[in-house]
């Protein structure tokens, strides 16, 4: 599998190739910068979707927890969705409403677990556009985000929600570490200072 492929502006990264976090971070930083310049945004909000009650679906809140604990959050960077306060199907609509009301000038980076082709399990996807949570398990939930990051935890062919319970925790943790490293590099203090100077 290639370390990075491009299909309809969706980039794939193999989470086993931890050195690729530099490339993933660079592309994420560029996407954020483009939206900030084009739409006069002044901050970044990481919107981490999922629940701690399912191994496969815990990727989002696990990433939110790890990033919050690492001190990424400050005046220009906010995090919604953690292990303590997850955003999931039951409260997604209220969380989206709150974010749009409280952070209208932030670039929203939506993070979630997803399903894909079997050979892509364990890969990270990155792209511009809204994320549609729940499609992989036949749920129609509200779209959210300007940029999306997903970790592929299962194959398309299995729409059984119980599939998410059988995902190996080691795979979820590896993808969470990869995404967290990429986000931390993309939101390095120098970049945040630059954004504050520009706006």
Low-confidence parts, pLDDT < 50 over ≥5 residues?
Answer: 1-7
CATH superfamily: HybD-like
Give the strand order, joined by hyphens, for the main sheet: 1-2-6-7-5-3-4
H/E element string? EEHEHEHEEEHH
Gap from first CA to last CA: 40 Å
CATH architecture: 3-Layer(aba) Sandwich
**Percent of residues in beta strands?**
15-25%
Mean pLDDT: 85
Total individual domains: 1
The CATH class is Alpha Beta
Structural class, judged by helices and strands?
Answer: alpha/beta
CATH topology: Rossmann fold
State the assembly state of the protein chains.
single chain
How many helices does DSSP assign? 5
Question: What general form does the structure show?
Answer: globular
How would a textbook summarize the main sheet? 7 strands, mixed
| Helix percentage | 25-40%
Give me the Rg, rounded: 16 Å
Number of strands: 7
Textual characterization of the structure:
The protein has one domain: Rossmann fold (3-Layer(aba) Sandwich). The protein is of the alpha/beta class and 199 residues long. Strands 1-2-6-7-5-3-4 form a 7-stranded mixed beta sheet. It is built from 5 helices and 7 strands, in the order ββαβαβαβββαα. 35% of the residues lie in helices and 22% in strands. The protein starts with 5 loop residues before the first strand and ends with a helix.
């Amino acid at each position: 599998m290639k370390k990075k492929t491009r299909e309809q502006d969706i980039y794939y990264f193999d989470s086993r190739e931890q050195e690729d976090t530099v490339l993933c971070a660079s592309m994420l930083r560029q996407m954020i910068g483009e939206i900030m310049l084009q739409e006069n945004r002044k901050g970044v909000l990481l919107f981490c979707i999922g629940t701690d009650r399912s191994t496969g679906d815990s990727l989002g809140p696990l990433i939110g927890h790890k990033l919050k604990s690492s001190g990424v959050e400050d005046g220009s960077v906010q995090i919604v969705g953690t292990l303590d306060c997850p955003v999931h199907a039951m409260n997604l609509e209220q969380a989206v409403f709150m974010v749009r009301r409280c952070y209208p000038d932030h670039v929203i980076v939506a993070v979630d677990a997803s399903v894909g082709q079997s050979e892509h399990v364990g890969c990270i996807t990155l792209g511009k556009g809204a994320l549609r949570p729940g499609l992989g398990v036949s749920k129609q939930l509200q779209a959210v985000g300007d940029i999306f990051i997903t970790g592929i935890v299962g194959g398309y062919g299995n729409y059984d929600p119980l599939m998410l319970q059988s995902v190996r925790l080691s795979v979820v943790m590896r993808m969470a570490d990869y995404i967290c490293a990429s986000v931390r590099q993309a939101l390095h203090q120098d970049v945040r200072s630059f954004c504050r100077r520009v706006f």
